[in-house]
UniProtKB/TrEMBL annotation:
Origin: domain of life: Eukaryota
Keywords: Membrane, Metal-binding, Transmembrane, Transmembrane helix, Zinc, Zinc-finger
Ranges annotated as spanning the membrane: 88-105
InterPro entries from the UniProt entry: Znf_GRF (IPR010666)
GO molecular function, one term: zinc ion binding
One Pfam family of this chain: Zn_ribbon_GRF
Entry-linked PROSITE patterns: ZF_GRF
PANTHER family referenced in this protein's UniProt entry, alphabetically: ZINC ION-BINDING PROTEIN
UniProt source species: Handroanthus impetiginosus
Protein's name in the database: GRF-type domain-containing protein
The keyword rRNA-binding belongs to this UniProt entry's keyword annotation: no
Start and end residues of each GRF-type domain: 9-49
Keyword Glycosyltransferase found: no
Length: 106
């Protein structure tokens, strides 16, 4: 199916592409009415059904991906904090060195 083709739902609106996050259809794309609440009941799968092995494996992979993304976000936040602290310590060290150099000149 061509994704760029304009498909209209029963409301005569252009349908939207969505991705399923269910255990039975993880990552499977579908089309539906853009007015989910109060719209029509238009629904059509874009992707073919997954084989049983893919249905069994993909949810675990998605959970692992979520864990790794959360860890990455934690490390990125910690890195920002450490960079700010390092900048502050460099400024402090510069101040100490300038103070010592002035003291030696006196």
């Amino acid at each position: 199916m061509v994704e760029n083709a304009r498909v209209l739902c029963h409301c005569l609106n252009i349908v939207v592409f969505c991705t399923s996050c269910t255990e039975d259809n993880p990552g499977r794309r579908f089309q539906c009415c853009q007015n989910r609440e109060g719209g029509c009941s238009f629904f059509r799968w874009v992707d073919d059904p997954l084989c049983p092995r893919a249905r069994a494996i993909i949810p675990g992979l998605l959970r692992r991906l979520n864990v790794l993304e959360n860890e990455r976000d934690t490390f990125l936040r910690e890195n920002v904090k450490l960079e700010k602290r390092m900048k502050w310590l460099k400024a402090l060290l510069l101040g100490v060195l300038l103070g010592l150099s002035i003291w030696w000149l006196v």
